[in-house]
Amino acid sequence: MALDNELWLVFTWYALRGRSSDPERLTTAQLARLCEDCRFFGPRRFSKHDMENACAVLRRRRRREEWRGLAFKEFVSLLAAFSERIYGPSRDDAFERLVTERVFPLAKRRRHPLDIAPVATNADVIRVRRWLEAEIGAVFEYYASRESTRSSTLLWDDLRRFSRDFGLKFSSTDIAEAYLSSLDGRGRLGLEGFWEIILRLALGCCSDFQAAAVERKRHSRPYADLVKSVLLDLYRAQDATVELAASERRVPSGSATDSATIGKRQIRHHRRVCGDLVE
Out of the domains of life, which is the source (predicted)? Predict the structure, then answer.
């Protein structure tokens, strides 16, 4: 599991640099970059042409699906195949050697996600969440993809639609970083993960270059003020999404996600909650 976690940080670093609009898929160009960084290529053992052929085989297997790049499991499988080319097919430890001698020392990777427990358990932040619990839940349910009758999961495409509809004032890379950092152990994003994304965006702890800014913000503004600022931006944008909720999804009136639930009446309530931040 620890090995997979570290490889996931490597995989997603290159995936984000290839196409931040799909941070869970690795493009062929970024796989080539990783191979070059890790010095996989050599005249007698493994070439860029070999790598491209391996990706082409995966494309052919997905004839009925649009090729969006390598998924994480496919990436790990390719590393195992590459290790046999580089170290020899008879070496049982080829994959382990590839990872420990080349990937981890030489590849770039994302930082381990910041532990935001001190923020999530802050009394003022908890109070803000309780005030807006129903509304945050309604927005999540509206955008989440139903995987079963018992639970909802927010997929990356769902989060992208949410960010477009609400005009989030963050870069696609920052939103993708917050998403990746908030996934649970099964790679899913439930309501708690959605709230965690809001906290991470509020703290500005998304892109690697923002690490120092997080520390400055912690000392200059209370956690709750940072969270309320993001929530206020979200609910200001709801005026533009009320008709979207009613017309595109045809949500039944009176349901938890109808336009009345996430409409102007709630915006006025949220503005009172965040009143000290209203211009």
Answer: Eukaryota
